[in-house]
Specification:
Elements: E1 9-11, H1 15-24, E2 29-33, E3 36-40, H2 44-49, H3 51-67, H4 69-83, H5 89-110
Parallel strand pairs: 1-3
Antiparallel strand pairs: 2-3
Helix pairs in contact: 3-4, 3-5
């Protein structure tokens, strides 16, 4: 499997993400299609500063990579129809990736600098 960061694109002010933002009634949205993260209501700079959000979206990039583009879209759609967006197992996995990233960041902040007594 190729590293996730290869050929990754981020599109600001994406019409697709704007539609998702409207549908989800959110103030900002990031959504993934293949190796492209589409943003609406947030700048690329602000998105990249939120490591948990980035981890969430990178999880979706990995899901596309693992299942294949069309197959993942189908699996995601079927899962969403069956259990809804919030309980969709792919969303749950991505949320957990964000939670893990937050925990790692907090753990790294709590560790004293090297050589501290």
């Amino acid at each position: 499997m190729k590293p996730l960061e290869n050929n990754l694109k981020i599109i600001e002010n994406s019409p697709l993400a704007r539609f998702a933002r409207w549908k989800l009634k959110g103030t900002n949205v990031a959504m993934v299609l293949g190796k492209t993260i589409h943003l609406s209501g947030v700048s690329k700079e602000n998105f990249l500063q939120d490591s948990a959000w980035v981890a969430h979206e990178l999880c979706h990039v990995r899901q596309f990579q693992e299942h294949g583009y069309l197959r993942f879209l189908w699996l995601y759609l079927v899962e969403s129809i069956k259990v809804g967006y919030y309980n969709n197992k792919y969303e749950v996995e991505a949320r957990m990736a964000g939670v893990k990233q937050n925990l790692l960041a907090k753990q790294n902040q709590a560790q004293p600098p090297s050589g501290a007594v």
